[in-house]
Amino acid sequence: MNNAIYNFQTPQNEPVLSYLKGSSERDGIEKELPKQVQQQIEIPLIIGGKEIRTGDTDTVVMPHNHGHVLATYHKAGPKEVEMAAKAAVEAHRGWSSLPWTIRASILLKAAELISHKYRHVMNAVTMLGQSKNIYQSEIDAVCETVDFLKYNVSFAGKIYESQPKSAFNQLNRMEYRALEGFVFSVSPFNFTSIASNLNMAPVMMGNTTVWKPATTALLSNYYLMKIFMEAGLPGGVINFIPGKGSVIGNNIVKSNHLAGIHFTGSNGTFNFLWGEVSKNLTHYKSYPRLVGETGGKDFIFVHPSADIHEVAVNAIRGAFEYQGQKCSAASRMYVPKSLWPAIKAEMVDMAEDINMGDVTDFSTFMNAVIDESAFDNIVSYIDEARTAHDAEIIAGGKYDKSEGYFIRPTIIETTNPHIRSMEEEIFGPVLTVFVYDDKDLDAAVKLCDTTSPFGLTGAIFARDRIAASHICEQLRYAAGNFYINDKPTGAIVGLQPFGGSRASGTNDKAGGEFNLVRWISPRTIKETFVPATKYKYPYMEE
Ligand code: NAD
Question: How much distance in Å is there from the Cα of 269 to the middle of ligand 1?
Answer without folding.
Answer: 6
